[in-house]
Design a protein that fits this description.
Number of helices: 16
CATH class: Mainly Alpha
CATH architecture: Up-down Bundle
Largest sheet: none
Strand content: under 5%
CATH topology: Formate dehydrogenase/DMSO reductase fold
Shape: globular
CATH superfamily: Formate dehydrogenase/DMSO reductase domain
Distance between the termini: 50 Å
Low-confidence stretches: 5-11, 341-348, 387-396
Amino acid sequence: MKLNLTIQSRLRLNFSPLVWVLLTLMGIAFVVAMMRYAFGIGTISDLSYSYPWGFWISFDLFTGVAISSGGFLMAGLVYILRIKEFEPLLRPSVLTAFLGYIMVAIALLVDLGQPLRIWYMMIHWNGTSVLLEIGICVMSYLTVLAIEFAPVVFEGVKLQKWAHLIHKFIMPFVILGVVLSTLHQSSLGSLLLIQPAKLHPLWWTPILPIIFFTSAISIGLSMIILESSLSSRYFQRGLETHLLAKLAKAIPVVLVIYGLLKFGELTVAGDLHYLFTSGTMSVLFWTETLIGVIIPILWFSINKNRESANGLLTGAIIVLTGMILNRFNVSWFAVKHPDPLFYMPTFMSNVKYFPTLPEVAVSIGIFSAGILAFGLAAKYLPVFDDEHSHTAHMGD
C-alpha cells in the first residue's frame, strides 16, 4: 500500500501554473504545426506569393537571432578577452543563445514552403545567395553552441572528465563561434540589400550589415540583463548587479554609435526629409528611435538606474522593445510587396497581409518551449555559479 502511494506521488504532475500555461501554448502550437504539415502552409497563414515574409520571419528569425547574440558576447569577453569577472554570466548567456538558435531552426521548419527540403542547400549551393551564408552560419553556430554548453551537461550528470576535456579544447570553438555569430548577425542585414526598391529609404542603406551588427550588440547586452534579472527573481537566486551594471554602462556607447550610423547615413544619402514626410513610416521610425535609442541612452546614463535591479530590468526591456520594433520595421512594416500579376512601382502596391492567429500561436508556442527548456536546464544543470546563488539582491 505504501509502495503504491509512493509511486502515485512520483507520477503526480505537480506543475506550477506557469508551467501549465507554457505546456498549453506549446500544445496549441504543435496542433497548428501538424495542420500546416498535413494541409499546407496556406491553411494556417495569410502568406502568399506576393507576401512570402510576414510575422514568422520578423519574430522568429530576425528577432530570434538578435536576442541570441548575448552568447557570443559573453564567450568573447570571458574566453578571448579573458575578463574572468563575467564568468558567472557566461553559462546562462550561452544557454539562452543555444535555445534561441534551436527555436529559430524549429520555426523555419514551419515557415518554409517545403520544409522537407531544408537540407537541399547543403548539396545545391547557390554561391550568390546570402541565404546560403545564413543557413551555414545557423547550422555551424548551433553546433558550436552545443559544444560550448556540453560541459554544463556533463557536469550535471557527473561526467567531470568529459567536461574537463571539452574545456581543454574549447578555445578554437569559441573563436569560431564569435566569427560565425558576427557573420550571421550582419548577414541578416545583407539579406535586405537586394530590395532597395521595396524597403523604405528610412531603413534601406548599403551599410545595413554594419547597422544590424551594432544593434545586435545592444540587444545582446540587454538580453543578458533581462535573462539574469528574471532568473534571479524566479529561481530566488542572487543577482550579479555589479556585473550587469558594467554591461549597462556599455549600452549607451553602443547606441550612440548605432544612432550616428543611422542618421549619418540618412544625411549622406540625402534622405533626411523622409523623417517628417513619410506618414506612418515616419511615426514608426521615430518610435523605434525614441524607445530603442534615445530613452535607453538617457536611462543607462544615470548611475542609480544601472546600480539597481529594477533599473537594470526596466532599461533592458526598453532597449529590447525598441530594437524588436526595428526588426519588425525593417523586415515587415516598411516593406512593400508589388503584386506579381500587376507589377506596380515601389510604395504603390495594395498587396496586404495580416498574421493569422495560428501564425502567432506557432511562434508563441515555440517561445514558450524555449522558456520551459531554460527553466528545466537551470533547475537540473549547473547553469548558475554557486558562488553567486546565495548572494542577496544588491541595489533594490
